[in-house]
Specification:
The complex is a heterodimer of chains A (114) and B (115). Chain A contains no helices and eleven strands. Chain A is an all-beta fold. Chain B is mainly beta. Chain B contains no helices and twelve strands. In chain B, the strands form three sheets. In chain B, strands 2, 5, 6, 10, 11 and 12 form a six-stranded mixed β-sheet that branches. In chain B, strands 3-9-8-7 form a four-stranded antiparallel β-sheet, with no helix packed on it. In chain B, a hairpin with a 6-residue loop joins strand 5 and strand 6. Chain B is globular, with a radius of gyration of 14 Å. The chains are: A mainly beta (114), B mainly beta (115). Chains A and B meet through strand 4, strand 5, strand 9 and strand 10 of A and strand 6, strand 10 and strand 11 of B.
Chain lengths: 114, 115
Amino acid sequence: NAGVTQTPKFQVLKTGQSMTLQCAQDMNHEYMSWYRQDPGMGLRLIHYSVGAGITDQGEVPNGYNVSRSTTEDFPLRLLSAAPSQTSVYFCASSILLQQGYEQYFGPGTRLTVT
Amino acid sequence: AQKVTQAQTEISVVEKEDVTLDCVYETRDTTYYLFWYKQPPSGELVFLIRRNSFDEQNEISGRYSWNFQKSTSSFNFTITASQVVDSAVYFCALINTGTASKLTFGTGTRLQVTL
């Protein structure tokens, strides 16, 4: 199992550019989510999905789009990058087991918008 | 709405000292899970522990121990005999049953362990 993979690891964008952060998991987990991490603010939920074809907004969804056409993939799209979107982005997948939730995080993507 | 508060922004200790990281949470749900994660300087998130709301037993794992008290809505983390390798940012997080995708994180506590 590769677990949760994210690409790219680093990205620099100019203001106004668009891009897609890729996230994939090979554990057949129903639940997937995207978080951003900013200094002093912990991780905040951007969007999440409870299964293929189902997505919903989290705490900070503005400026981002997601889709979930397959169980494995959950890409995050930045429509028109802004300096305020400079952050570290983490993708996660999770499953509910008998002993509780298991959450798996990807290694993160560090995005800088100039 | 739920909330996790880690009031300690940064803690510095000398190696071999014990240190406790505080976590206070708020939720209206009766069934929930609490987590601690470690984020070393390399940046990845490392899972440390999960505790469900029905299990108030304290847990010890090597030098790590956790104290869960529902009466005070706290889930504190103690490192005994700290080591330099413990230097990291530690996050406490909460998830309610039925919202498996939605972790609420605290703002983290940066622990610096020096020789």
